[in-house]
Amino acid sequence: MSWNEPGGDKKDPWSGQNKEEGPPDIDEAIRSMQEKLGKWFGSGNSGGTDENGLSPKAFGLAAIVALVVWAATGIYIVDQGNRGVVTRFGQYVETTEPGPHWRFPTPIESVDVVNVEQQRFIEVGYRSSGRQQAVGTVAREALMLTKDENIVDVRLAVQYQIKDAKDFVFNVKGPSPTLKQVVEAAERGVIGKSTMDFVLTEGRSEIASEVSQEIQTIMDNYGAGVHVTSVNLQDAQPPEEVQGAFEDAIKAREDEQRLINEAEAYSNEVIPKARGAAARMTQEAEGYQARVIAQSKGESSRFRQLLTEYEKAPAVTRNRLYIEAMESVLSKTETVMVDVKGGNNLLYLPLDKLRGADASKNIQRSRPAAVDRKPAVRSTTGLRTSSRGREGRSR
User: Fold this and answer.
1) Which of 50, 191, 266, 350 has the most beta carbons within 10 angstroms of its beta carbon?
2) Rounded distance, CA 117 to CA 111, Å?
3) Helices (H), 5-146
4) pLDDT score at 92
């Protein structure tokens, strides 16, 4: 249906009746905003307004409000354990302690907050996960040459803190990368002065201590404001290509040391016993020597005294010597054979039984001892004849 037909829309596209409203005029929007601001600051339609509609009083008040807001942006708070490094146009001004502070707002002054109590870590030769577990080796950092021209795989962990926030911010550009390079250089220098066996066995603690001192000396010379708290040698081992052969060498060295320890233990057990036995034998020999010498001296003295008595009374001395000799001989036997002179009977005296009988009758002291009993007579025909009787045996 056309626009001029009956019942049509009756809207002429050229008449302007269908023209939509356009965007608002920018000048009108600015003018309306100025009027509202003029009313807000009390300018109204007074004759003191400038050509933009703002009075000097309103402009000053706006400037004061803006200045207050700008000054409020200079308030900052330093948390516990941090330090604030304040700079004015890039030049150091001061270091602030924890707490609320104020500075000239940007761009006049700025603040760099540095955490001086945080424990920071640097890993050389490996990378760890969040649980501080080694997850990979960095061969470029880990492989090092020793004094005896061997290659070792060393993993080092360095823990440090910031001791001076100003030095940390200003003196060194990129303190953490610089520290890592210093750690690697110091580690290679210390490893290069040590042998492979020393690095892999008993020298770990000594190497870590020497590396720590070297790192601290270099960083102090740089004035980096860093304090190295600990250096830990996480692992030191030969490269993977020779790992098996090196483990065999370690086992052989351990077996050697074990055998040496066992031999030393056996030696420590046997030598004192042998020394004790030797000392005991020496003492026994010395005692035997002293006893024999003393006995010999006593016998010689006794012989000289006996000789003197013999020269005075030879017969009495001979009889005494005979009696003492017989007493000494007969006291060592329990059986006595008595040969009767002129007869063929041999008397047997069972002294052991007699002694036993005497011991059992000691309680009957009122009864006389059986001294008149005749000893048992044993027929010894054929053993001893009357022709063998001698005066010596009848005694």
Assistant:
1) 191
2) 18
3) 26-40, 56-72, 139-142
4) 87
Torsion of CA 254, 256, 259, 260, to 10 degrees: -110
Residues contacting residue 10 through CB under 8 Å, at least 6 positions apart: 3, 4
CB 99 within 8 A of CB 81: no
Distance CA 73, CA 192 (A): 55
**What is the Cα–Cα distance from 8 to 1, expressed in whole angstroms?**
7
Give the helix ranges, DSSP H, for 171-203.
175-192, 196-200
Contact call for residues 104 and 135 (beta carbons, < 8 A): no
267 alpha-carbon distance from chain centroid? 29
Cβ proximity of 262 and 256 under 8 Å = no
Local structure of 209: helix, strand or coil: helix
Cα–Cα dist 74/190, whole Å: 49
Task: List the one residue out of 154, 135, 158, 127 whose CA is nearest residue 143.
Answer: 154
d(CA 107, CA 72): 14
111-129 confidence digits (pLDDT tens): 888 888 888 989 988 887 6
Q: Measure the CA–CA gap between 309 and 302, rounded to whole angstroms.
A: 11
103 vs 371: which has the higher pLDDT: 103
Q: How far is CA 331 from CA 187, 299, 321, 326, 327, in A?
A: 93, 21, 15, 8, 6
Tell whether pTM > 0.70. Answer: no
More confident residue, 330 or 152: 152
Which amino acid belongs to residue 26? I
Q: Which residue has the higher pLDDT, 88 or 15?
A: 88
Q: How many percent of the chain have pLDDT more than 70?
A: 70
